[in-house]
């Protein structure tokens, strides 16, 4: 039997579905270092084919104001999709939601503890739990110093579950000239973990001869 003509008058041919967008879930919580989450969102917004899903904790919003003179709407403007941290029924709360993983930038010790113990007490920790159970990549940019034993044990627990603990520690071997360069170096290293192309920082080519 001949194939039916399509709407344009040609032979009917089933079109392949569009390639799925890459999706990254970003959470900003109440540790110092809100700039890391904002810079991630800024870079990903300019990266073709990446859809960002953002959550802000209440303490995270306070830090945005304290550290960057930004409010909730300022931060949300950088994301493709925004979720209320109390909306436990959101799409990202289900393993059927396809994503490349999740970054908590920065990650408070409270959020770390909740993830380590599987509490899923809000959408941030539920989404992190989903990422872990689906064997996707979870990066926690933990910010505290010094660490106590509870912090260290929680970081070990998350690592054993497959998460990546990524304290945003600046590197000085590239001789950064500004805080912005140090932030970009760290953000670039995080994006490397997801295979997201960027030009935020030069690549290390070995020690130069003296």
From TrEMBL:
FMN binds at residues 30-32, 57, 108-111, 143. Residues 1-20 are annotated as: Disordered. InterPro entries: Flavin_trans-like (IPR036551), Flavoprotein (IPR003382), UbiX-like (IPR004507). Dimethylallyl phosphate binds at residues 173, 189. Residues 23-192 form the Flavoprotein domain. It holds the Pfam family Flavoprotein. Its EC number is 2.5.1.129. It catalyses: dimethylallyl phosphate + FMNH2 = prenylated FMNH2 + phosphate. Gene3D superfamilies: Flavin prenyltransferase-like. Keywords: Flavoprotein, FMN, Prenyltransferase, Transferase. Flavin prenyltransferase that catalyzes the synthesis of the prenylated FMN cofactor (prenyl-FMN) for 4-hydroxy-3-polyprenylbenzoic acid decarboxylase UbiD. The prenyltransferase is metal-independent and links a dimethylallyl moiety from dimethylallyl monophosphate (DMAP) to the flavin N5 and C6 atoms of FMN. Belongs to the UbiX/PAD1 family. This is Flavin prenyltransferase UbiX.
């Amino acid at each position: 039997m001949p194939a039916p003509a399509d709407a344009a008058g040609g032979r009917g041919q089933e079109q392949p579905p569009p390639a799925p967008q890459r999706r990254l879930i970003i959470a900003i919580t109440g540790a110092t270092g809100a700039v890391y989450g904002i810079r991630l969102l800024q870079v990903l917004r300019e990266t073709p084919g990446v859809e960002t899903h953002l959550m802000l904790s209440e303490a995270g919003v306070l830090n945005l104001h304290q550290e960057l003179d930004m409010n909730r709407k300022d931060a949300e403007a950088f994301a493709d999709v925004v979720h209320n941290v109390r909306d436990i029924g959101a799409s990202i709360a289900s393993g059927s939601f396809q994503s490349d993983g999740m970054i908590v930038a920065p990650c408070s010790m409270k959020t770390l503890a909740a993830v380590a113990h599987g509490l899923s007490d809000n959408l941030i920790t539920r989404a992190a739990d989903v990422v872990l159970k689906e064997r996707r990549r979870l990066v926690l940019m933990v910010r505290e110093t010094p660490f106590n034993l509870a912090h260290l044990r929680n970081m070990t627990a998350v690592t054993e579950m497959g998460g990546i603990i990524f304290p945003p520690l600046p590197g000085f071997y590239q001789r950064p000239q500004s805080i912005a360069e140090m932030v970009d170096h760290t953000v670039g290293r995080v994006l490397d973990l997801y295979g997201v192309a960027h030009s935020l920082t030069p690549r290390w080519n070995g020690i130069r001869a003296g």
